[in-house]
Amino acid sequence: MKKKVFLSIIIIISFLTGCNKDHLLSIHIIDVGQGDSILIQTPNKKNILVDGGDEDAQHIVKNYLKRKKVKSLDIIIATHPDTDHIGSLDYIVENFSVKSIYMPEQSVDSESYINLVNSCNSKKLTPEYLYKGDNINIEKNIDINVLSPSYIQGDNNLNSIVFTLDFNQNSFLFTGDAEEENESDIINSFDLDYVDFLKVGHHGSNSSTTDEFIKETSPDVAAISCGYKNSYGHPHKQTLENLSKHSVLTYRTDQIGDIVFFSDGQTIFTKKNYKHQ
Q1: Cβ atoms within 10 A of the Cβ of 56, count?
Q2: Out of 13, 39, 109, 174, which could bridge 28 as a Cys pair, Cβ 3.0 to 4.6 Å?
Q3: Domain-embedded: residue 275
Q4: pLDDT of 87 over the 90 cut
């Protein structure tokens, strides 16, 4: 297992060295309440949006993108068609220039899914489908490698697009609402002991983020996106215990709000002294 790096030390180093943001990858966990929305900005100014929260989050996501001077999105990844992940994406497609959108090859009859498809049609934007084993080169030294789904099932969560984004020596793992079944398939199919960062699956539900999955991926840092005092009880105690057991520094939007991580390709750090578990 790789050596753990304590983020609190890296925070101090980053302030002292005054890292140049122009050469950094940034991961923005946007606080959309009980949902997911993540902005990834690359050193060459490419913008990737992973999910968009529910319908009520549309102005939150739009305003966040505007504050970060995002005028166009190179890629949108809708991890799966649950409303708390795609609810605002129709609004984002309508209000931003979008080059590519990816999603699972699954159709549902929900209003949020129909609205997203209609917005894509109005922009002549054709969704592309991702499966386990697919790869997307973003730019030099940055690649997306898709780990799941292997096939489409009836449960939306099991169809979540799970992928790593690799930037030089750092690897970021994004899991949508993947469940234990997905995690088992992933760790049996891929060697992921190099993961540095984990976006915790399903808002910290105890139906994912198993002890075995954390042991095999051994992330240094994890982020949980969930609503303050949400009715689901996310994140669940067992999930937090699994992360703590393996000394994963865990950060939560329900406690912090928006969270931003940076990477120079070697080290992941923050610019703020966020509270962690």
Answers
A1: 14
A2: 39
A3: no
A4: yes
Which of 159, 157, 135, 158 has the alpha carbon at shortest distance from 146? 135
User: What would the two tokens of residue 142 be?
Assistant: 């940055």
- Kindly state whether residue 276 falls inside one of the protein's structural domains: no
- CA nearest neighbour of 27 among 13, 44, 42, 5: 42
Give the pLDDT score at 21: 59
Q: C-alpha angle with apex 149: 145 to 151, nearest 5 degrees?
A: 135
**CB neighbour burial string for 4-41, b if at least 16 within 10 angstroms, e if fewer:** ebebeebbeebeeeebeeeebbbbbbbbbbbbbbbbbb
Domain count, the chain: 1
User: Which whole-number Å values give the CA distances from 82 to 16, 48, 55, 77, 193, in the listed order?
Assistant: 42, 19, 11, 13, 29
CA distance 122 to 155: 28
Residue 43 lies in a domain: yes
Does residue 57 form part of some domain?
yes
- Which burial class, exposed, middle or buried, applies to 275 when counting CB atoms under 10 A from its CB (0-12, 13-18, 19+)? exposed
pTM equals: 0.93
Work out the pLDDT band at 211, boundaries 50, 70, 90. Answer: very high
The CATH number for 36's domain is 3.60.15.10
Average pLDDT score over residue span 121-127:
98
pLDDT-derived band at 1, boundaries 50, 70, 90? very low
Start-to-end CA distance of the chain, whole Å, equals 22
Expressed as residue numbers, the domain containing 201 is 21-269
127-181 residue pLDDT tens: 999 999 999 999 999 999 999 999 999 999 999 999 999 999 999 999 999 999 9
The CA distances from residue 70 to 92, 148, 166, 225, in Å, are: 11, 28, 22, 22
In this structure, what token pair is assigned to residue 12?
């101090």
